[in-house]
Amino acid sequence: MKLQKTLERLQKLHPKEIDLSLDRIKNLCDKLGNPQKNLKSISVVGTNGKNSTIQTMRAILTAAKIKCNIYTSPHVKKINERFVYNNKEIKDDELCQILSEVEEVNNGDPITYFEILTAGFFYGTKKYKDNINIIESGLFHRFDATNILEKNIASVITAIGLDHTDWLPENERTIDKIIFEKTSSLLNSKIIVSNQDDKQTLEKIKKSIKSNNSKKIIFNELYSFSLRENNFFYYEDEHGDLKLPIPNLVGEFQLSNVATAIATLRNIEELKISDNHIKEGILKIPSIARLQEIKLGKLKSVIKNNKLFVDGSHNALGAKVLTDYLDTIHSNKHIIIGMMANKDHEKYISFFKNKIHSITAVDIPNQPNAIKGEELKSKISGFDNVNYKKSILEALKSLKLEKKDIVLITGSLYLAGEVLNLN
Fold first, then answer.
1. Hey, which end of the chain has fewer CB within 10 Å, N or C?
2. What gap in Å lies between CA 352 and CA 355, rounded to an integer?
3. 2-281 architecture in CATH?
4. Residue range 155-177: average pLDDT?
5. Torsion over CA of 395, 397, 402 and 408, rounded to 10 degrees?
6. Cβ contact 159:47 at 8 Å
7. ∠163-169-172 over CA atoms, to 5°?
8. What angle do CA 340, 341, 342 make, to 5 degrees?
């Protein structure tokens, strides 16, 4: 309760949810003694795959007994997920203490919620100065609150696609602008570029980072992977080849994120990551709401022996990799969907055409910025079996399932969080 009250106060410090600028975060961190300076950091930017890439690095570092701090956003179930120190999610009391001290130093000055949380993360690292820090960039990167580091040991660019365009000027809502915002201000260290959705996007990324003097480690140029028979995948880079077990993440598309994580850590020589660290780590990757199968719980009991998955994807790039995975499953698929109002609903839903048996729109509870389920249903066209139900539970109970049918709940990380909490 004390933590919740602190968070509620922090949310009232600025009239806007997002106000892209670095001035406020720099001023606050200066008052805090600039805790972000001299950190050993890996920055992660991109549209999709950031969390899976980060969690793979976390798992490998844990296997190597290397301590790390991790900052991600948004959270799925609770805000503590955003603050990992010494490989562990922060406890309520410690998080409340950190944020209260930062709030006191801020002294009521205007600052966005994300900015003061970011300052809080950096402030919390003071106890763990020797740890590796993995820092996810939020909305974009150039004016993102995380972009106040003066040096790092690597920058990772995951798959980039169209998302959050409502925060850009109307005449600049393009992939070119997004690539510029995410990659043009990367620090001079090493840049690892993940597999991209198309060649044009990759070429635009390469052009954007061309003047950066960092070593560029680009997928299919300095590292690659392939899926092989007998349940293993083959990874190779300039440091050598690895025959690896299939990671514990669902979906072949996740291999790209795993390979990017491996390439990043193998190219930070001081970490001395061994083949065994990688083999052990990729079998223990934490994954919440990223094509996560729910095997037990209240919601699972409703559909009994049918499989239930939850996935937080919410943009076209995410829908594409999700439907690629669905294509590998030879049974009826039932989709339950809820989305935030500022997303491209028609584009996201279009990827499921001719691939699913039914689609049911729902309201996302506790999210005033979500599109109402009935309105979302009205945007769904070209599907034979379209429904609306007010709640997730009602939607599950309404499904007419046959043996081996699967159910997927998707469209928003906020919806995924509600699903996991309800379950």
1. N
2. 5
3. 3-Layer(aba) Sandwich (3.40)
4. 85
5. 40
6. yes
7. 70
8. 95
Distance (Å, whole) CA 378 – CA 394: 19
Higher pLDDT, 172 or 315: 315
Spatial CB neighbours of 97, under 8 Å, sequence gap ≥ 6: none
CA distances from 85 to 66, 91, 179, 207 (A): 12, 10, 30, 36
Least reliable range by pLDDT among 71-85, 110-124, 221-235: 221-235
What Rg value do the Cα atoms of the chain yield, rounded?
21
Say which DSSP state 381 is in: -
Whole-number Å distance between alpha carbons of 381 and 354? 11
Considering the four listed CATH numbers 3.30.2010.10, 3.90.190.20, 3.90.1150.10, 3.60.15.10, the one that applies to the domain covering 292-422 is: 3.90.190.20
Please give the share of the chain, as a percent, with pLDDT higher than 70. 100
Give the helix ranges, DSSP H, for 304-356. 316-326, 345-350
- For residue 21, give the 3-state DSSP assignment: coil
Which amino acid, 39? L
Sheet with 240-245: strands ordered across: 223-228, 232-237, 240-245
The pair of structure tokens assigned to 189 is: 């260290």
Helix H segments across 209-281?
254-266, 275-281
